[in-house]
Amino acid sequence: SREVIADSIETVVGCECMDGFVAIGGCDKNMPGCMIAIARMNRPAVFVYGGTILPGCITGQTRKLDIVSVFEAVGVHANNKLSDKGLEEITACAIPGAGSCGGMYTANTMASAIEAMGMSLPYSSTMANEDKDKEISTGQSAKALLNMIEKNILPRDIMTREAFENAIAVVMAVGGSTNAVLHLLAIAHSTGVPLSMDDFEVIRKKIPVFCDLKPSGKYVAIDLHHAGGIPQVMKMLLNAGLLHGDCLTVTGKTIAENLKDVPDQPREDQDVILPLDRPKSAEGHLVILRGNLCPEGAVAKVLGVKTQNFSGPARTFNSEEECLDAILDDRIQEGDIVVIRFEGPKGGPGMREMLAPTSAIVGKGLGDKVALITDGRFSGGTYGIVVGHIAPEAQLGGVLALIKDNDIIIIDIEHNQLNVKLSDEELEQRRKEFIAPEIKYKMGVLAKYAKLVGSACKGAVTD
User: Fold this and answer.
1) Which letter does DSSP use for residue 57 in this model?
2) What whole-number percentage of the chain has pLDDT above 70?
3) Which of 97, 163, 223, 397 is least crowded, fewest Cβ atoms below 10 Å from its Cβ?
4) Which of 64-73, 139-148, 281-290, 294-303 has the lowest mean pLDDT?
5) Are 356 and 320 in contact (CB under 8 A)?
6) Contact at 8 Å (CB) between 386 and 340?
7) pLDDT the model gives residue 356
8) Model confidence pLDDT, tens digit, residues 21-56
9) 294 SS3 class
10) Cα within 13 Å of Cα(38), Cβ side
11) Which pLDDT belongs to residue 365?
């Protein structure tokens, strides 16, 4: 859908000969879709985020609920540790109104990245959908667009290599979604900016995670907003020499100029944004892995993970649904490494996200006892020992397709490695026997996508 959205915006803006446009996005795929179109057209444009949802709660409880609470509750319920009534209560209360999923999941991650890149107004990425602030900010965005048109400020003047580095730095600082890797690579491709998975690893080593946000932390995006928002995070990074302050933004000013009046340190009466010298993690949480399972790369999310190394027998599944059934039926045991394949860009087709199985694993009490690897993606709400975006994908004959049950897989975060314990000779023999399954769709949008899409290691772009 990201590609369909990008193509659609490009078509309308091009055919209507628009001088400039405001692109409004409010969920995982339409936000990068908007940005890809903005990059392709290179006409004055401002991105407006639809806004985050407010947290839900059950009457009489203080626990904050969101969409991931529901998915995890399904696993807890299946484990006979939550009653039917309890599941119904969580389901009824988790989504109290409009807005994108509340934690630092993919929508809020991309909103934060776009603000950091300078393509949306300061503070706009953490506002709640239903707050008056969002309406006011949207009006200000329209005024900013008119100024861009008058001064001929173009998106590619803003979306430079340094701007992408700023976006990656903020994603690391807030503990953002693995999907940021996929989408920022795709946006950079459309902008003509050279960016690779390895750049994420270089930046990760420099940037601590110092925001305590869901899925592995306590707070949601609106809490971050009240604590100072992305400008506060950026000011701290700027002061530490970890941000490019001279990058232009849609305000017509530079990052440093926009942040001039932001306090150097966050308020002391909050613990959403932590001091840089006391972060949740000394390094970023999105780790790029390589090895015989992923010579083109893979992405691991390690925030909240107790171990840097995990090895165990493979439990292979050729679809998300097969895997979910096995988890709910208690066929996954402590120490297993779950393998979900043929869910990559071409094999899915569409690279589905594995929120249901990862949440079920957590709900079953196996979150730090079972690993999951896939050529698909993860929801921004996923946490645990997970590795996604494995490339080459199984559909193309990647090693993931050749794994059998009980093969030993080794995840070594410390050394950026993902391997299966098989000899080159054994892998070559299995490769000779491999026959790729037929693409599931023969016509329509998914058939077109499967035919055109490239590797996840380059953003899964279609052009």
Assistant:
1) -
2) 100
3) 97
4) 64-73
5) yes
6) no
7) 85
8) 999 999 889 999 999 999 999 999 999 999 999 999
9) coil
10) 32
11) 87
The structure tokens listed for 252 are 């017509």
* pLDDT band with cut points at 50, 70 and 90 for residue 383: confident
Whether 380 has a pLDDT exceeding 90, the answer reads: no
| pLDDT tens for each residue of 219-228 | 999 999 999 9
pLDDT at 359: 84
pTM of the model: 0.95
Q: Is 295 exposed, middle or buried (0-12, 13-18, 19+ CB in 10 A)?
A: middle
- Spatial CB neighbours of 67, under 8 Å, sequence gap ≥ 6: 94, 95, 101, 102, 105, 381
Among the listed residues 33, 22, 210, the one whose alpha carbon sits nearest the alpha carbon of residue 106: 33
Q: Residue 221: CA atoms inside 13 Å, Cβ hemisphere, count?
A: 31
Secondary structure of the chain in the HEC alphabet?
CHHHHHHHHHHHHHHCCCCCEEEEECCCCHHHHHHHHHHHHCCCEEEEECCECCCECCCCCCCCECHHHHHHHHHHHHCCCCCHHHHHHHHHHCCCCCCECCCCCHHHHHHHHHHHHCCCCCCHHHCECCCHHHHHHHHHHHHHHHHHHHHCCCHHHHCCHHHHHHHHHHHHHHCCCCHHHHHHHHHHHHHCCCCCHHHHHHHHCCCCECECECCCCCECHHHHHHCCHHHHHHHHHHHCCCCCCCCECCCCCEHHHHCCCCCCCCCCCCCCECCCCCCCECCCCEEEEECCCCCCEEEEECCCCCCCEEEEEEEEECCHHHHHHHHHCCCCCCCCEEEECCCCCCCCCCCCECHHHHHHHHHCCCCCCCEEEECCECCCCCCCEEEEEEECCHHHCCHHHHCCCCCEEEEECCCCEEEECCCHHHHHHHHHHCCCCCCCCCCCHHHHHHHHCCCHHHCCCCC
Q: What is the 3-state secondary structure of 185-237? A: HHHHHHHCCCCCHHHHHHHHCCCCECECECCCCCECHHHHHHCCHHHHHHHHH
Catalytic residues: 379
* pLDDT score at 400: 98
Helix, coil or strand: residue 248: strand
Residues in the chain: 463
Q: What does the pLDDT read at residue 308? A: 83
